[in-house]
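Reading a protein record of the kind used here takes only a little practice. These numbers are not coordinates but entries in a learned vocabulary of local backbone shapes. Here is one such record, which you should read through line by line.
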Amino acid sequence: MIKNYFKITFRVFKRDKIYSSMNLLGLTVGITASLLLFAYSYNESQYDQHHENKDRIIRIVMDVNFGDDTRAVAVVPAALGNFMKEHAPSVEEYAMLRSIPHAGFQVVKGDEVVAEHGLFYASQGVLDMFTYDWLAGDRATALVPHNTIVLNRSLAEKYFGEVDKAVGGVISRDDGTQYKVTGVIEDVNQKGHFTPNALVSLWDDSKPTNWRDWNWCTYLLLSNPGEDFTPVFQQAFDENMAPELEQQGGGKITFSTQKLTDIYYASRLEFEMEPNEGNRAFIQGFTIVGVFLLLLAIINYVNLVTAQSQKRAREVGVKKAFGVNSNALRMQFFTEAFAHVLLATLFSAVTLIFMNPVFRHFTGDSLPAELMASWEAPVLVVFFILMISFLSGAYPAILISSFQPVQVLKTNAAGKSGGGLALRKALIVLQLSVSLLMIVGITGVYTQLRFISGYSLGFEKEQVLLFNLPNAAIGNYHPLRERLMTYTQIGGVASMTDALGEKPPVNDFTYETDEGERTEIIQQLWVDEGFFKTIKVPLLAGRDFRYRAENDTTQSGVLVNRAFVEHAGWQVADVPGKRLWSHDWGDRIIGVVEDFHVVSLHDKLEPLVFRYNMPSRNMLVRYNGSFSEAMDIIQEASREVAGEELPAWTFLDRKFQLQYEEDEKRANLLAVFTGIVIFIACLGLLGVTAYEVRRRNKEIGIRKILGANASGILLLFSRSYVALIAWAALLSIPVANYLLTEWLQSFAYRIEVGWWMLVLPLVVLAGICAAVISIQSVKATRVNPVEVLRCE
């Protein structure tokens, strides 16, 4: 019996090639797109999931409060981890990590200096707590001795040729420090909120006791993950931090914890080791879009099959007249749905294989092959096919099998049982609503991205190079700067401690206002006398920094930005000469500069203090004209002055652009899948329109006999779909407006959701629908009344 069902299904495929192809295309596109979205959501949800103890690891963070200002930071005092282990019974182990800035670790390899990235200072607890595939060395003691290092496989092979030869070897830093290699781990390919290429020990096997060293991300391994640490945190603050903070004018530290698996998605603190760009709302959103795509593909299949119901009415009538019962007919239509879904799933599987490079281009990740390698995969695939087959075949099977033999054999029409048009139109409204929702979303996202790409940061970032200097170049910075400034191709050279594009460090500053002294935590940048000229930030009052020799003990003064002046309630012209001091330092403000953004527009512009910087790791160079010519000049000058080329550099504008990379990636994904949703919706609309034309072909014939022209018939069909589009707009536009407004809140500088962002997508969707409807309506105008009315 089942064999006969498949034979009939094959005949239906051959007889209705166009509709069968449309069904297969709609299902294949929908299944493929939804699987791609599910794969993206799966990949994005895997951060820190590979650690065996992930459910028992937490990170300590703290809120630092001075006056009205509070800073949420990811780093805590060095001594806190050991304090927690000694005072909290459920703490089994603690681990401490601190990232080494890119190119802050310069390795000597033969005659060259190589800038390595992905290095972290780490305590032994990191190896005890986190899960890494160990290749060589003693894991239990690798980071206990001072000046030891654990490399990943790539670095071990890079510097020693083979993994086995690395352990016991020495890595030499450009400042002369040597690190003994005590272990090798496999390259970390799993996702995590930090990804180490190497772990460097910083102290001997002793317990850290420094409560002033606020530079460490500290993790705890718990035996009881539900324990409340508030009393222990309060004890740590009261005993070790409160007295000193009181001497500095009063301050409050509040400690709290984060689950390891929440850090990448929910933590946007200052001084994170690596940017946390995860967003669970986006993951959930893309998963929902994937589900909607699958539902739209199913709806599309239902609409196309029921659009053919008139055509198959006589077939059903004949079968019923010969004694075939309704259950057998339903089974036939379920079999057809199963065959369509099975073929579509096979086509999707093949498509996914070829789509992997495209998927990697858009997301940066490959399709998760480990899912298909698991034992659950075959079970899930079978369940997936059966579920979609049931959802796709249920309504057509019930509808078409209910046709009455007398009615369909007499008129070749389905009669009342051929109804269900209201349901099909409701499904079309759902498809159009999702399409409009996504068109509005992509319009708003791209408008915001264009806005931030064209928004002035307050300085000129174009044609500026950012170098990470090796130690030899730092020691010869001033001669190198003087040499470079002799060339007309070089427009400026500057040194700074923390690179533009990275969150500046903070310090507690005290200054005088009309209400008295005020102490606050304020961002600070250490720069030299060439900084503002190089990035072209204007001076508003006072003077700039002046060159100071290394043995100069006079005070250099500080500069502040306009935001600081406004925050303090001062007038720009009155600022030079005012005092500014901290707990261990004091100076006078010598000038005010215009505001500019040091990080992306996700963060608001804040008050900023500029202190004088002796030569440091980061060097900015503005070049005029040709990049290649300027680079040749820079490297030649570095070879002559410092004895080596500068190994690490980037374009400053590119560094800022990378901060929007995740937003652009998600926008591109949204654009692609918006197009897919529209395509599937158009297929469904085409099916319903085709059904409508067949259902009303006699009416059309009569109207033509009575003198109706083509435009009148076109208007007749278009009129009913205006209401469908209106309902879709009513359902989707408020939701789209809410979701877009919520997403824009992640930017400190953002567009407003204008009326045109809601109306233009509606016009676009209406135009697409009009084009699809016109295809079938034009066919209706060509109906020969004699052909459709001759049996009446």
The two ends are 39 Å apart (CA to CA). The mean pLDDT is 84. Residues 229 and 358 are 47 Å apart (CA to CA). The longest strand covers residues 516-527.
